[in-house]
Amino acid sequence: MQLYNTLTKRVQPFEPQQDRTVGMYVCGPTVYDHLHIGNVRPVLVFGALRRYLERFKNWRVLYVQNVTDVDDRLIKRSAETGESVAAIAEKYTRAYFDLLQALRVDRPTASPLATDHVREMVDFIALLVQRGHAYVRDGDVYFRVESAKDYGSLSGRRLSEQEAGSRVEISEAKEDPFDFTLWKAAKSGEPSWPSPWGDGRPGWHTECVIMSRKYLGSHLDIHAGGNDLVFPHHENEIAQATAASDEPFFRFWLHNGMLHFGGEEMHKSLGNFRYAYQILEVYDAETVSYFYLSRHYRKPLDFSDEGLRAAQAAVARVRRLIGDVEAELRNRHGNAGSDGGAFSASLQGFRARYVAAMDDDFNTVDAVAVIQDLVSETNRFRETATGEDRLALRDAVLLLRELGGPLGLFESGTSGASSIEAGLLDLLVDLRRELRARKAFDLSDRVRDQLAELGVDLKDTEQGTIWSRRAS
């Protein structure tokens, strides 16, 4: 398998260092609000990568994702609402795991809370002070960036090229504008913990170093997140980790591209965002996964309802094939005839193409194209196959489920209101299609109109009819 490593700026062969176990650390949410649709991209991308490594490589994956439950944004939200920081964090942590379930993303192996590891962070910061990599000013502790070996190696930004104020906190207490905060002295009304430098709380950049090493141990294989975290967050993680220990930190750093909305990068500060749960009120989880994974993870992705509707139509095409074949073959047993056997044997070529795409820097774009090619070939075979040969269609459906699995698509045994609803709507769309084919236009229009009254719109396209649920 080959993966693009942000640290080396090239595609490199990847495999676990030991015991066929991959240690993955993916930067998690700061739980002051619901996730927006830009935040969802790393959740879906790296969740899919995890499933691929487990199911197709047969590697064990330790998947760790932190929860930042104390932060400036949480404190600001507390001041605005009057709720305690702890209550806000608990509410949105719960909402985050509900979202994972709605998206059908596997829960992490571990989801450590920052506030549960403050004591370890204090000990770590004290070690950096002792080694001369950090200094104390009026109860605050700063990391001395000039002391860091190869600072800028991840982002490619050298200190001489930086502009003070570019995602860098300015303070007269710093020796250098680019020194970053490890410990913040307590302010009235804010959460705080004891330390050798007085009560306070840890800075954001330290928690991931502590928790990744604690929960992954020597399995420091992949560190991942959005490319907006390359600098300063991930750069500062590396600086601290290498300053505190001679042991190697993560080997591979993976970063997904940003989501764009209306031609601009999506940020809550710009107001150009939608919450992820709002999208799931309109589109089912498979449609959302298909939309995100139909673009290479390292490239920017333009968010649009048009793109989601196209993804919905593509997913419906595959679902329709799977449903039709399973209905036809439900009570049939035996082996396919010679032509069916030849068709079944040809399916391995699709699987090989899929694996080659996924092994090529997790190219889900080409993997999705393989799935659609498989659907086309299967539909062609359905048109001509007769008798026992049609039993070979079962092999195609099994392969579709296998290839869709890592991408969160087409798996059997899924449950939940959203999947049931999607299936029923697909059934009604198929019924309307049959009615139109029979020229029963009064009945087909009645299906359309009653769905519209329920808030579901139908749109006829060259690729077929697609449905979308209007936001409430």
Features:
alpha/beta, Rossmann fold, Four Helix Bundle (Hemerythrin (Met), subunit A), four-stranded antiparallel beta sheet, elongated
Structure notes:
- The two termini are 44 Å apart.
- The longest helix is centred in the last third of the chain and has 25 residues, at 305-329.
- Residues 413-419 have low confidence and may be disordered.
- Strand 11 (259-261) and strand 12 (264-265) form a beta hairpin.
- The strands form five sheets. The chain has a four-stranded parallel beta sheet, sandwiched between helices. Strands 5-6-7-8 form a four-stranded antiparallel beta sheet.
- It contains 14 helices and 15 strands.
- It is of the alpha/beta class and 472 residues long.
- The chain has helices at residues 40-55, 72-81, 85-103, 118-130, 204-216, 230-244, 276-280, 285-293, 305-329, 338-359, 364-384, 393-404, 417-437, 441-453, and strands at 2-5, 10-13, 21-26, 60-64, 134-137, 140-143, 180-185, 200-202, 222-226, 252-256, 259-261, 264-265, 301-303, 456-461, 464-469.
